Amino acid sequence: MRAIFLSARDRLRAEFASRLARDTLVVFFFSGFGRAVALGKEMLVAAFFGVGGLLDAYVLAFLIPSLLVNMFGASFASALIPALGGASEKNGAGQAGGRLLGRALLAQAALVALTALVLALLPVQALRLLAPLLTPERLALVKAMQTTLLPLFLLGSLSQTLAASVNYRGNFRGPALASTLNALATILVIALLHSTLGIQALVAGVDAGAALEFCILAWLLRRAWGGLFHRPTEPPNQTRQTHQTRPDRPGGPVARGQRGFLRALLRDWFMLALGASTLAVAAFVDNLIASTLGEGSVSALSYAWKLPSGFATLLGLTLSTVLLPYFTGIVHHAPAGQLALASRRIVKRLLLVCTPLAVAGALASPLLVALLFQRGRFDAQAASLVSVVQACYFTQLPFYLLCIVTQRMLQALSQFRFLLLLQTGLVLLNALTSYIFSRAVGIAGIALSSTLMFALTAGISLWAIRRQLHVRAQRTAA
Question: Would you give the DSSP letter of residue 243?
Fold first, then answer.
């Protein structure tokens, strides 16, 4: 028995000796703590605002800024880090890398500012697409809150890139703590101002949290990248005649390289943003359909997704961090059959772990809603409604995480076009099934439709992976 224990201990030490495993654990635990604080914020919002038309207006106002943060922030950061890696490989990790990052941040800031201006000038009636049945007064409130949430879009988008750039330099704790402090600042502002500002206290808290996180990340970026943003000084003996040959002058090789870097970065960002916006359409459709089911339906749907999304996001982030480089290494360096063996093993373990978690969450949904939300204006009737929808959302957890795994496999196999076509087709199917199911069973039908979408995505992706592995095996045999 002692020998078995020592052997298991040695295997664990070997697993966690790698930097990838250590960084993954840091992301998991610090993100988990941040999710717990964010859940506390949702509990406070439930106590102060309950389920009703005012919170519906906030959720609808938050939709577009949150989507744009994902498109202009997360997608831009996902395109930037590989581009910086390629630039460092060509030019070395010197001052050129910092100047490229600085130019990328300026380009992102310009894109974000221009989009924010367009959003601010958007007429009120354009927002009726989010909720066709809203009264003019409530629609005006949605527009006013959306305008007030523009700092969240501006600072949140840039914060995504700042956090990714700090992570790129090896600091994973700082950005995770900055996100946690964001949630804490939001809680503090809501608690202090809800009695005087009402629902606007929620908007003020979100903006204040985003501003605090941005400031912390800007400081962390300066520390992580040091003096890389500063232009190198010329040697004192450099003459005026040599200024035209400097590589960082307009037309020099580094300047041309920087322009090529930005073009490639924007092209990659556009593809990623297109995929992100396609998936985000499902959330817009769900809220649009919920808005036709009566007052409070949108906020009830939002509450029901909070806890399942916490598990899904945390576990999905961990899987995304670990599996993409793992699968990529197998595709390029391991025998042809190794990916099939690894994928079957990971899928089996994922289902063995996540299926009991999903069942337990669905069964305990009434208790969880009562413990987390049922207080203040969040009464027993609201708790009963939210618990049913939350149980339906819990059932999609294994399928959602299986989608994460299969997407990483397909990305390692360079099947990006197939992924985009699959996402587009299933989003359209989700819109149809959400409408049909919601008419049959109410708000819970929207959650059931999402479960169906993720199940189909995972199933079709597994079929595509099997087909790709068969093709690779035939090529190897030939």
Answer: G
User: How far apart are the C-alpha atoms of 285 and 114, rounded to whole Å?
Assistant: 26
Of 191, 253, 182, nearest in space to 216 by CA:
182
Alpha-carbon gap, residue 410 to 300, rounded angstroms: 35
Query: Does the pLDDT value for residue 162 go beyond 80?
Result: yes
Terminus-to-terminus CA distance in the chain, angstroms? 48
The amino acid occupying position 153 is F
What's the token pair of residue 29?
């635990």
**Shortest CA distance to 409 belongs to which of 472, 345, 331, 337?**
331
When pLDDT is cut at 50, 70 and 90, the band that residue 253 belongs to is: very low
The tokens of 383 are what?
């708790």
> Each residue of 362-384: pLDDT tens digit?
999 999 888 888 877 788 888 88
User: Vertex 126, ends 122 and 131: CA angle to 5°?
Assistant: 135
CA angle 318, 322, 326 (to 5 degrees): 160
Taking residue 315's Cβ as centre, other Cβ atoms within 10 Å add up to: 20
Is 42 within 8 Å of 303 (Cβ atoms)? yes
Q: Please write the tens of the pLDDT for every residue from 21-80.
A: 666 677 677 777 777 787 777 788 878 877 677 788 888 888 888 888 888 887 787 777
Closest CA to 472 of 379, 371, 378, 340: 340
DSSP 419: H
- 19-to-80, 98, 176 alpha-carbon distances in Å: 22, 24, 18
Contact between 461 and 410 under an 8 Å Cβ cutoff? The reply is yes
DSSP codes, 12-31 = HHHHHTSHHHHHHHHHHHHH
240 burial level (CB within 10 Å; 0-12, 13-18, 19+):
exposed
What span, in angstroms and rounded, lies between the C-alpha atoms of 21 and 325?
12
- Work out the number of other CB atoms within 10 angstroms of the CB of residue 404: 21
The Cα–Cα gap between 44 and 55 comes to 13
